[in-house]
Amino acid sequence: MLPLGDSLVAAGAAAFSGYALKAAMKCAPNCQESLAPELAVLSGAVAVMAAISAYHGFTETAHCREARTSWCGLHDCAAADSRR
């Protein structure tokens, strides 16, 4: 569930970063009173970090599935699943 949450955070931060970047471009020469450039950079960094975390989470989840599949290939997992 965490990789999916990270993906949603990354998508939201990327959308917000795009919106802030658009606002920063409008105030281009005089942005002293606008936080748009800082928000664009900060939300872009959040988007990148959340995307990296989501990628790592999805790859780790895949490794867990591979390990369970290989374990079930050697053992009878149907009996263990029926007890749950």
Number of helices: 3
What coarse outline follows from CA principal-axis ratios?
rod-shaped
Poorly predicted residue ranges? none
Query: Averaging pLDDT over every residue, what do you get?
Result: 80
How are the secondary structure elements laid out?
Blueprint: H1 2-26, H2 36-74, H3 77-83
Helix pairs in contact: 1-2
Describe the structure.
The chain is mainly alpha-helical. The protein has one domain. It is built from three helices and no strands. Helix 1 runs antiparallel to helix 2. The longest helix is centred in the middle third of the chain and has 39 residues. It is rod-shaped, with a radius of gyration of 21 Å. The model has no long low-confidence stretch (mean pLDDT 80).
In summary, what is this structure?
With 84 residues, the chain is mainly α. It has helices at residues 2-26, 36-74, 77-83.
List keywords for this structure.
single chain, 84 residues, mainly alpha, 3 helices, 85% helix
